[in-house]
Specification:
The protein has 3 helices and 8 strands, in the order βαββββαβββα. The protein is of the alpha+beta class.
């Protein structure tokens, strides 16, 4: 199951305003974010669509996909398996309290340089 998808945008403010309007008929709402960094929209069933300020035009193709794991052991196993398959480390497994109190994740770069995350957010599982 996919937890969230992040896409880079050239103008974060303009894109936030666009998606707030475009998503309104669908019932998708701005959930949280950080000015000049990123915004996350709740698209239902615990899934988020995130927009992130691009560093430059070439980074507009940057992709970040997070896959929800069942537990921390699965996050750890994903990380080890990905590294063994040739991925590059982009963040070892660990707690990410700046994301959410019970957020645990790892990040790897796939062969194309895409940021792939395995995560568990126990707060979501309790809901």
């Amino acid at each position: 199951m996919i937890d969230h998808i992040t896409v880079a945008v050239s103008d974060l403010t303009k894109s936030r305003l666009f998606y707030e309007r475009a998503f309104a008929p669908l019932g998708y709402t701005l959930s949280f974010g950080k000015e000049n960094v990123f915004w996350a929209f709740d698209i239902g069933n615990g899934c988020l669509f995130e927009i992130q300020q691009a560093d430059s035009a070439p980074s507009l193709t940057r992709i970040h996909v997070a896959f929800r794991a069942k537990n921390r052991a699965e996050v750890d196993a994903f990380y080890q398996s990905a590294l063994a398959a040739g991925a590059q480390d982009n963040g070892a497994p660990g707690s990410r309290p700046d994301y959410a109190p019970d957020y645990y994740a790892c990040f790897i770069l796939d062969p194309d340089g895409y940021n792939i995350e395995a995560m568990i957010n126990q707060q979501l599982d309790k809901a």
